[in-house]
Amino acid sequence: MKRFSFSLQLLLGLVVGVALGFAAKVWDVTWLAETLTQVGKTFVQLLKLAVPPLVFTAVLVSVANLRNVNGAARLATKTLLWFLATAAIAVTLAIVLGLIINPGQGVTLDTSAAKPVDTEGAGTWLDFVTGILPTNIVTAFTEVNVLQIVFLGVVLGAATIAVGEKAEPVLAFSKAVLELVQKALWWVIRLAPIGTAGLIGKAVATYGWDLLAPLAKFSAGVYVGCLIVLLAVYPTLLAVFGRVSPITFFRNAWPAIELAFVSRSSVGTLPLTQRVTIERNGVDRDYAAFAVPFGATTKMDGCASVYPALAAIFVAQVFGLHLGIGDYLLIAFVSVVGSAATAGLTGAIVMLTLTLSTLGLPLEGVGLLLAIDPILDMIRTATNVAGQLVVPVLVARSEGRLDEAVFNAPPQPLDDAPAVRPAGLAKPATA
What is the DSSP string of 244-271? Predict the structure, then answer.
């Protein structure tokens, strides 16, 4: 397999998965469909296994690492502003697209058959805010509440800066754990071609036209909206503000975007996203150690902007409810401010629930969309990760922290495990 690049291996896995899934669907090969399902499920389980320690140590170390970065406050502010700006652009485009295609108009669905959704702790802004604060530290990790884990990482990272030298043992331990988890997770990522075949094969075998037909316009709208952000918004920002070639960027970033598409997990893609950001896009290592982990847990243009906007319009039209200008402004506000609610995990149910409850729309609408959520989550997550790669490039370019020679060089191979150098051990970069 070393004769094939990692990107090509992923592509081959995609092609094989589609072929096997199609065969299982057409000829009703039950054992093949079950095998594909199990392979994909195992791959996702392996990715999720590393989520709690990866998120906690990555956020803690990235916050503590800001002390080694000149102009850290300015960099953090610029990063957050770009997160907000791109989210605002994405949700605006989604609303316009929704008003053009009217995804729920003429759709007849049995709303009484909507799948039940557990909205406890995710239905209102109060639930969202209180849900950030863990009532039990152990539970936050055992139940994989990523938002609470991020909160703990931020607090302890800030505390290590405040305590100073006495906190060095804790910081050194966190860096060691982060390096171990990233190395182990990279071994899992190397299985991605096999996982890709299973995940895509399961999707093809499961989602026939009978299931997709009533939601075809909505599904197409989500894909079109995400592709507009991916192929129009991001390239424009890179060309105008980053003054770099969008084609070169996507050539460098493609493996991470492709893995995000099949794995449906921004956090699971984090090690590959970080490697691409540093080794291919030439972003300063110390800044990337902050920007990439935070992006993986809070930067969600697909899940938190495009999808909930179109879904809210769809649900309103299916239930025959009118949305006014104020409602559309509220959708934009929720998408921009509440994107952290998605927290880098597979799916965007929390964000959709938050949007619908804020607008006063029936939460049964979430249940109507659950059946096809995995097939939509692929393009949403790919858009999320692309945005997480774009923003560090834009900020690094504006701060003189982008190595153009690395960015424009032939892409570095990603086939071998990274020799991880813990963030923060590098010499402080200068602007």
Answer: S-HHHHHHHHHHHHHHHHHH--TTTTHH
- What is the distance, to the nearest Å, from the Cα of residue 384 to the centroid of all Cα atoms in its chain? 4
Angstrom distance (rounded) from CA 85 to CA 424: 28
Q: Could you tell me the maximum CA-CA distance found in the chain, to the nearest angstrom? A: 65
DSSP secondary structure code for residue 231 in this structure? I
Q: 419 φ, ψ to 5°?
A: -85, 85
Q: How many CB atoms lie within 10 A of CB 431?
A: 11
Residue 27 in 3-state DSSP?
Answer: coil
Tell me whether residue 391 is exposed, middle or buried, using C-beta atoms within 10 angstroms of its C-beta: 0 to 12, 13 to 18, 19 or more: buried
- The answer to whether 388 and 292 have CB atoms below 8 angstroms apart is yes
Q: Token pair of 69, please?
A: 């970065």
For 105, counting Cβ atoms within 10 Å of its Cβ (0-12 exposed, 13-18 middle, 19+ buried), the class is exposed
What are the tens digits of pLDDT across the range 157-173?
989 989 988 999 999 99
Distance CA 162, CA 167 (A): 9
Distances (CA, A) of 82 to 63, 74, 227: 18, 12, 19
Q: How many Å separate Cα 150 from the centre of its chain?
A: 15
Task: Quickly list DSSP for 402-423.
Answer: B-HHHHHSPPPP-SSPP----T
Backbone angles phi, psi at 283, to 5 degrees: -80, 140
First to last CA, the chain: 41
Q: Write the pLDDT tens digit of every residue in 281-310.
A: 999 988 988 888 888 878 889 888 999 999
Neighbours of 45 (CB within 10 A): 10
Determine if the pTM surpasses 0.70. yes
Residue 123 Ramachandran class (φ > 0 left, ψ -120 to 50 alpha, else beta): alpha
